[in-house]
Amino acid sequence: MSKLTNIKFITQEIGSYRKPDYLSKKFHTLKGTPEFREKAEKATLETLKLFDEAGLQNIGVGGEMFRWEMYEHLADNISGIEFYGKVRSFDNRYYNKGSIVKEITRKNPVHLDELEFVLNNTEKAIKVPITGPYTMMDWSFNEHYRDRRELANAFADIIREEIRDLKKLWDTRRSGQLLEIQIDEPAATTHPDEMDIVVESVNRSFEGITGAEFSVHVCYSKDYRMLYNVMPDLKVDGLNLEYANRDTFKLGVEDEARPGYDDLADFADINDQLSRRKFLGLGVTDVHQDTIESVQLIKDRIGYAMAFIENPTNIRLNPDCGLRTRSREVAFQKLKNMVEARDLVMEEY
Amino acid sequence: MAKVETHVYGIYPKTENLRKNINRWERGKIETGEIYEALRQEKEQYFTLLDENKIATFTDPLFNWYDVLRPIVLLSGGSLGPLTRYKENNTFYRLPEFEEVKGLTMDPTKNAEVESNPPFPLYQNAGSNGFSAFLPSPVTIYRMSQVSEKIGKSDFINKITDNYLEICRKFGVKRTTIFESFEYGNEDISFLDRLSKELDVYLITEGKLNEATFKNLGEKLYSVVVSKEGDISLAAKYSKVPGVKLLDAHNTKLERVDSLKKKVEELSGGINAESIVVTNSDYYDFLPRSIADRKVEILSQVGE
After folding, report:
1. CA B63 to chain centre
2. Three-state SS for A184?
3. Could you tell me which CATH class the domain B9-303 is placed in?
């Protein structure tokens, strides 16, 4: 096979990583205190070290040690949201779902401290995940806004304000480099008739901000084609998606072995028509299973995807979703195997 | 104004105390005997809440059901597949997988540990006045499950219905609340005849109804509860006491009692109903506990 140039296959984290016990057990009681900050910083440093050892190229924000949960982290810093108690996600797992009781406004910057700390402690590529406007809307009770579109756009305005602050900080530290922002939208395809609201609110959340690269992360969608279909209108540079969860553990690059990636042809069909193609962050390791995918299996997943994506420079590699669902040890091995698989692919191509 | 029969059904949100206890039990920090007792006590408190609010008919709060299908799936020989999004919500259930539908695999009235779910019994206080056995419609289970091609749809529905009859007989209940999670389309719901011969059936429907759905029903059900107010005349035609969902289980905004009373008056007046069932739009587990409790109080005031 001929050697290809310019292939990077950037390996990246999606966002969260399991917190060490010393942080997770005291997270809520210490939040807002100097001790919390000290523990969150310690955990971030330890996680950055793990990411380094795994060979990860883009280290995100060091596993989101400053954050508890993606909805609550942003919602806690917005006025106009009341919390009346937890609601069930599944089994005996619950989350705080806020009620929008009046116009929402940002109380204070949400991710600035975290980014500043990471910038102080690494020179590697950074990607800041921010929960997206559509998901924030969908996961809230709306008691105030006229409709779901209006609420999603109100969240978009808050997120834009947040990104502007991050960009200001970024420019003082890494001027000339693109700030990478990942808009997390797990709810994006849950209401098929609202894809126009997804597009409108995501675009609005970074409207007018230049010098940054924007991606959107979606996971556990029933059908990614809904997302692919709106790619021409979605002004992001790339999609970071989950695929491994729907795949098999069989080795090989045949269709039968790789059902998790069977819609990549649809992605490619649409992407190839765009004047500016989007990159695809390919989920190659499942965050909902302790089984550690072998290097060969991950390599086969990458190899299968490359058959569809004409320009492999458009592929990045990541776990399906945040790895907080797994122990730090299992998560580390998954990342390490991902990096090793990437290196093997690079050697071959 | 028509007489209002207040009805509360489905999984009710747990208290923080019970959530924590279940969490401890899951991690092996407390014995199964302790979780039986915690569940029993919390259910008693729930029944007291309903009693204080004079709720006419109600189901078990199902604090020990991890989702609306799981206990029935386990009782009917199904297995639990991957986490799957429930409709368009940010909530998930384990996808039921059926290679066959068995008769009841265990006695649902007894204390017993079950797979990946807090322990049984299925219901508590089943003998009390106003108690109704909550059961997900076999149509809903079929639609939300992965069912082997070897099992025909009507066979599946009939076997689940057999199990439902058995469950209701074992508990000695007089009524059942059949929960439908999806719009019917062209479904045939004549399987309900077998239940309504023995029980008062409260059919909680979802979405727009059409007359064809009911054409094969032999007799009127006790109550057809509609989600679209425009369907109330269909509910009146096919049930003894038409019903309507008026309390929103997907929004924390509290309904105004006077508005609800006005709505009940309009709806019952339009069909000359003497009685009308008023209930929640979905099970309350989508709301924080404090809000669900307030909605029960509001429902109670509508019934006064």
Report:
1. 13
2. strand
3. alpha beta
Render pLDDT for A219-267 as a digit per residue (tens, 0 to 9).
988 899 999 999 999 999 999 999 999 999 999 999 999 999 999 999 9
CB within 8 Å: B19 and A89: no
Backbone angles phi, psi at A320, to 5 degrees: -60, -40
Is B173:B134 a contact under the CB 8 Å cutoff?
Answer: no
Of B85, B116, B250, the CB nearest to A220: B85
Q: Which domains does chain A have, with CATH numbers?
A: 21-68+108-348 (3.20.20.210)
Q: Compare CB distances from B90 to A85, A139, A288 and report the shortest one's residue.
A: A139
Q: Which residue from A90, A95, A222 is facing B83, i.e. has the nearest CB? A: A90
Alpha helix stretches (DSSP H) within A94-184 = 112-121, 133-138, 148-173
Enumerate the domain spans of chain B: 9-303
Q: In whole angstroms, give the CA distance from residue B142 to residue B98.
A: 9
Do residues B57 and B175 touch, judged by C-beta distance below 8 A?
yes
What are φ and ψ of residue A25, in 5° steps?
Answer: -70, -20
Instruction: Tell me if A70 sits within 8 A of A47, measured CB to CB.
Output: no
Tokens of B52: 């204080």
Measured between alpha carbons, how far is B219 from B222 in angstroms, rounded to an integer? Answer: 9
Whole-angstrom CA distances from B292 to A84, A86, B66, B282 are 10, 12, 18, 11
**Nearest to B93, CA basis, from B72, B124, B108:** B72
Which DSSP string corresponds to B178-217? EE--S--TT---TTHHHHHTTSEEEEE--S---GGGGTT-
Residues of chain B with pLDDT under 70: none
Distance of CA B173 to the CA centre of its chain: 14
What is the secondary structure of A122-142 as a DSSP string? --SB-EEEEE-HHHHHHTSEE
Residue B20 touches chain A, beta carbons under 8 Å:
no
- Structure tokens, B207: 């979405």
pLDDT at A310: 72
Beta strands in B102-248 (DSSP E): 112-114, 117-120, 131-136, 146-147, 175-179, 200-204, 223-226, 243-247
| Predicted confidence (pLDDT) per residue in B34-73, tens digit | 999 999 999 999 999 999 999 999 999 999 999 999 999 9
Q: What ipTM goes with this model? A: 0.92
Distance of CA B169 to the CA centre of its chain: 18
**Shortest Cα distance from B194 to chain A (angstroms)?**
32
Mean pLDDT of A33-39: 97
Q: How many CB pairs under 8 A join A and B?
A: 66
